[in-house]
Amino acid sequence: MRRMFIAGNWKMHTDRVSAVALAESLADQSTSLGHVDLAICPPFVYLDAVARAIAGSELAVGAQNMYHEDSGAYTGEVSAAMLLDVGCKYVILGHSERRHLLGETDEMVNRKLLAAHRAGLAPIVCVGELLEQREAGQTLEVIRTQFEGSLAGLSDEQMARTVIAYEPVWAIGTGKVATPDQAQEVHADLRKIIAGRYNEQLAEKVVIQYGGSVKPDNAAELLGRPDIDGALVGGAALKAESFLGIVAGAKA
Ligand code: PEP
Q: 0.70 cut: is pTM over it?
């Protein structure tokens, strides 16, 4: 049986003091999580402080991005090894803000994904359609293209260790959440795509999160769907109460 996985993407929010305080508060209150895995993804510069603050707790730390090279003259970039060195377990790759605001392509995401696996980081790869693509009936085609480009070249073992986050772009930070049926449909399609490329057993192992305006009041219904294995949470991850409200939905 797949475990539930809830991850908080803090984006470019918090400062050193508030990041550590939020991490400590979450660590204190996240006990007996049972079948739920929990991670928080602060900005790069606070990763070290946050990882120290939650050491020994049930929480894990993830980064929001990385570069695909191991080291070298890449000013401003951060490698997978550096993330591991400061205590990261996860890395978010191909978030829609990176794809659409910063020009990240499937090919770039794929290079990062392969580098993350080589280093031993657990990647969370985001895919999702724009509103006009959904309205034009292109959702499945967009998801398939992103999957084939961003997740190319993975071994069976690497695919099983890759978390996919389905994040419809129109639902991110907008308050417009996909209905449980809309999300379930795409998650089931993703699992079929994985089964087609690999096999059914492997497809059943892959954790697929939903992301896009998940809040405590909609979490349980979304997470109750058979192919929705957790959530990637933005805005509601910035307050312990709302993040833990979502976790409660996963435990329900
Ligand atoms: C996200 O940043 O991945 C996200 C889903 O944001 P929000 O929960 O704020 O929509």
A: yes
